[in-house]
Design goal:
514 residues, Immunoglobulin-like, 3 domains, 7-stranded mixed β-sheet, 2 helices, signal, Fibrobacter succinogenes major paralogous domain-containing protein
């Protein structure tokens, strides 16, 4: 019996050992013989930007950046720069001999016929071989190496159907460089270090853009047809070099700008092909519009500055001409001029330096214009002349004292105001292109080019007197039998607000919520 038990245990142990050996053999990696590498082109990755830029309000914007530049007194050019992932194309990629690789369908933005080169180095970094492949070509040959050894595979393309830069076989991996590349080259790169199995191996190539790409559109629908445009983006290196081992970019030669090539003229929107931009990460990118003619208006030397651009990131840059709806201040948008009325049309004075009309409170017509020019103390939206203005985005109203105090403050020195007593010798005078008045939002005289960045209230007078020496601006907020108003003159500013009979004459600067 003991002999039987011993024989049984030995038999079981032998079977287990044989089974284990069989499993080990089935799951082992063949480490000798020939290793065939089938190159499979995968997706081209688009990087996302994490750069930030400072906005005019002092906040930071990630991913999406926005800046503006004046186009005319009535229109502003608004630029929005955003990183994006390209739309992709689905295509079938085949390996050598027409045999489809394991990943038969992949996603890529490379078109059929685009060439890319695969360069191979051994574990010591010595050059072994290279081969050019063509997207969509079913006759791409497999590459053969020794199984069980580790290799470095470098793939790159310039997104061209006719050429791909060659590599110097005399350089090892540490020294290998693609030198003197044009800064406008769309260089795509991939590296993989793998130990090859015997038999078939798939090398899944996922290329990445090394240089920035910017696609630009200009929309002038608000003003008319775009007849011509010449523009460029800077800074940009004209030539670059790239280390194959680590994709390190060396910027050579002089810096300049990359020109934008637009199509679509004689329509309201033009667009450029993707423009390659070559420069280290910067928050000081500049788009320069040397000349543009839109809606019959020609502007030159426009600059959109402080663009944050990161190498390898793909961007869309959208520029749109938008009407100047007003001046942002105190959480509200203020009209770009005093309220005016002319032959049934409500609007704003041509600029902030024009006096505009005189009004009673809650009257649909200016003073002394007959029926409809008589006001009342209680607010009535149906009698608010600001609500009759449909230009500049509409939705205007006559301000309350709360609206005005949000911009000017209720107490002296509470908010920035530039108003200097004219009776003090040697004091500067607040002036909008030669017109005297009061600036809100600054404590100094703005530069000529910046006067419309701030709310300016000219000395428009009160009814039939005081023009050039005083300003009275209505609110619809009642105060006893009167209405609150903001008043100032060449000697002082009334603090807090004073009240006046609603039927006195005064200027109106319309407002709306942002």
């Amino acid at each position: 019996m003991k002999a039987y038990i011993l024989f049984r245990n030995l038999l079981i142990t032998t079977c287990i050992a044989c089974f284990a050996a069989s499993c080990s053999k089935d799951e082992s990696v063949q480490a000798t013989g020939e290793a065939r590498v089938n190159v499979v082109l995968g997706a081209v990755q688009e990087q996302q930007s994490t750069m930030k830029m400072a906005s005019a309000a002092g906040t930071t914007l990630s991913q999406v950046q926005q800046t503006t530049v004046p186009f005319t007194d009535a229109y502003t050019l608004v630029a929005t720069l955003a990183s994006t992932s390209s739309a992709t194309l689905s295509q079938k990629v085949s390996t050598a001999g027409g045999n489809t690789a394991a990943a038969t369908t992949t996603t890529t933005i490379l078109e059929q016929g685009v060439q890319y080169r695969v360069v191979v180095y051994d574990a010591a970094g010595n050059y072994l071989s290279n081969q050019v492949f063509t997207v969509g070509n079913t006759t791409n040959a497999a590459m053969a190496f020794n199984a069980g050894q580790r290799y470095t595979f470098i793939a790159y393309s310039i997104n061209s159907k006719t050429s791909v830069p060659d590599v110097d076989p005399q350089q090892n991996l540490a020294a290998a460089t693609l030198s003197s590349l044009s800064g406008s080259t769309d260089l795509l790169y991939f590296r993989s270090d793998i130990t090859l199995n015997g038999g078939d191996n798939n090398l899944n190539v996922v290329l990445k853009h090394l240089f920035s790409q910017i696609t630009t559109t200009i929309n002038a629908a608000a003003i008319g047809t775009i007849e011509s445009c010449s523009a460029s983006i800077a800074p940009h290196y004209l030539t670059v070099g790239v280390k194959l081992g680590n994709a390190q970019i060396s910027y050579t030669g002089n810096t300049g700008s990359a020109s934008l090539a637009f199509t679509g003229f004689q329509t309201s929107q033009i667009s450029s092909a993707a423009t390659i931009l070559n420069h280290p990460s910067t928050a000081a990118g500049v788009l320069t519009i040397a000349s543009i003619k839109a809606g019959g208006i020609t502007r030159t030397g426009l600059k959109l500055e402080n663009l944050s651009i990161t190498p390898g990131v793909k961007y869309t840059l959208n520029l749109e001409l938008k009407p100047n709806f007003g001046i942002s201040l105190g959480g509200y948008t203020w009209a770009p001029g005093n309220l005016v009325y002319n032959n049934g049309n409500y609007g704003f004075a041509e600029d902030q330096g024009k006096y505009g009309d005189q009004w009673q409170v809650n009257a649909l017509l200016p003073i002394d214009r007959g029926a409809g020019s008589e006001g009342q103390q209680a607010y009535d939206a149906a009698k608010d002349p600001c609500r009759m203005v449909t230009s500049h985005g509409g939705n205007w109203r006559t301000p309350t004292v709360t609206h005005l105090q949000a911009a000017t403050g209720a107490n002296r020195n509470e908010k920035p105001i530039f108003h200097v007593r004219y009776d003090l010798p040697g004091q500067p005078r607040a002036s909008y292109r030669g017109v005297a008045g009061l600036f809100v939002g600054t404590t100094t005289q703005p530069a000529e080019a910046d006067v419309d960045k701030y709310l300016f209230l000219p000395y428009a007078g009160e009814r039939n007197w005081g023009q050039g020496s005083m300003g009275t601006y209505w609110t619809v907020t009642p105060s006893s039998a009167n209405n609150e108003r903001f008043q100032f003159n060449t000697g002082d500013v009334t603090w807090p607000y004073s009240s006046q009979y609603y039927n006195a004459g005064g200027s109106i600067r319309c407002v709306k919520a942002q």
